[in-house]
Structures are given as C-alpha cells and as structure tokens.
Specification:
mainly alpha; 3 helices
C-alpha cells in the first residue's frame, strides 16, 4: 500500500510539473529582441567581454560563509530543545562545534580567510 501511494505521489508531481511548464510556455508573452540576450549590469552597457575570471579566494570565502550559516541553522533547533536533550545532546552539539572549529582552524591556517 505504501508503494502505491509513493508511485501516485511521484506521478502526480511529474504530471503537475509538466502541465505547469507547458502552460507557462503557452501563456507567457514572447518577445524576441537581440538586446534581451545581452548581459545586464544595472542599466550600464557592458564594455568588452562580460565573462571574467574570478579569483578562487572569493569562492573559498563564500563556501566558508555558507558552512557557518548552515551551522547556525543546525544550532537553532538544538537551542530550542536543549533542556529535553540532556547531557547527550550537549555532548553531541559539542562534538559538532568541535568539528566545525577544526574546519575553521584548517581554513585559517591555509590562508583561506585572507584577502590577497
């Protein structure tokens, strides 16, 4: 019975997405203008090529930022139920924070947090 329910939900989702995509293509206004295909940068026309290579430091910094944002998201529910979890919950979150601090120390030591 659970397998039938799963198949029904998956098929319904696929059909729903297909209908929405087809309807949006039929209903949406179409305007073919060569200016639409140009990159947009705050209304200022681009000069030269619009593709430029970024330093890897930007990506590293963004990944580290996301890592610690996800840490905050995981810590909030723990803080809400901290009294119900007891010592085991405290040790678990302590281990979680320890691993994240090790990751931060590694990134710091490798110089990923420095702008060069």
């Amino acid at each position: 019975m659970n397998f039938t329910l799963l198949v029904t939900v998956v098929l319904t989702a696929i059909i729903f997405v297909g209908v929405v995509v087809v309807l949006s293509n039929l209903i949406a206004p179409h305007s073919y203008n060569p200016q639409k295909m140009e990159p947009y940068e705050c209304g200022i026309p681009t000069r030269g090529r619009s593709w430029m290579q970024f330093r890897v430091g930007y990506y590293l910094f963004a990944i580290l930022f996301l890592m610690f944002e996800v840490e905050t998201v995981f810590l909030f529910p723990w803080a809400v139920v901290t009294r119900q979890l007891g010592v085991g919950g405290l040790l678990g979150v302590g281990f979680f924070l320890f691993i994240l601090i090790l990751g931060l120390a590694y990134a710091w030591r490798k110089g990923a947090l420095e702008w060069k």
